[in-house]
Amino acid sequence: MNIYDLIGGIAVILSCFNLLPQVLKGFKTKSVKDISWIFIFMIIAATIFWFIYGKYRNDWAIMLTNSIIFGFAIILLIQKIMYTRKDGED
């Protein structure tokens, strides 16, 4: 393993879990009103395109990373739908 593999591994970990704090905050506060619909849909679209690209390149790191991010984005989308209906947000 060289330094660039290490840097890539750190980037994968940070990328995978960058939405986790927001997901956890959403569960705690039962509010995601400060997250825009466009933001959520852009992340979902980006992860789908990245996954397709990773599949084309047969790159498991790209596919795995974006699958995890996609999962967190879907959780945010579900939170947005649930909490918007409940509280009349947005």
Descriptive overview:
- The N and C termini lie far apart (48 Å).
- The chain has a single domain (3-87), classed as Monooxygenase (Up-down Bundle), CATH 1.20.1280.290.
- The chain has helices at 3-16, 20-29, 37-57, 60-87.
- With 90 residues, it is mainly α.
- The longest helix is centred in the C-terminal third of the chain and has 28 residues, at 60-87.
- α1 packs parallel to α4, α2 (20-29) runs parallel beside α4 (60-87) and α3 packs antiparallel against α4 (60-87).
- The mean pLDDT is 93.
Question: Brief overview, please?
Answer:
The chain has helices at residues 3-16, 20-29, 37-57, 60-87. Helix content is 81%, strand content 0%.
Main attributes?
90 residues, mainly alpha, 4 helices
List the SSEs and their pairings.
Layout: H1 3-16, H2 20-29, H3 37-57, H4 60-87
Helix pairs in contact: 1-4, 2-4, 3-4
Question: In the residues, how many domains can be counted?
Answer: 1
- Helix content, binned percent: over 70%
So what's the CATH class? Mainly Alpha
Average pLDDT taken over every residue = 93
Structural category is mainly alpha
Alpha-carbon distance between the termini?
48 Å
Shape verdict: elongated
| Second rung of CATH, namely the architecture | Up-down Bundle
CATH topology: Monooxygenase
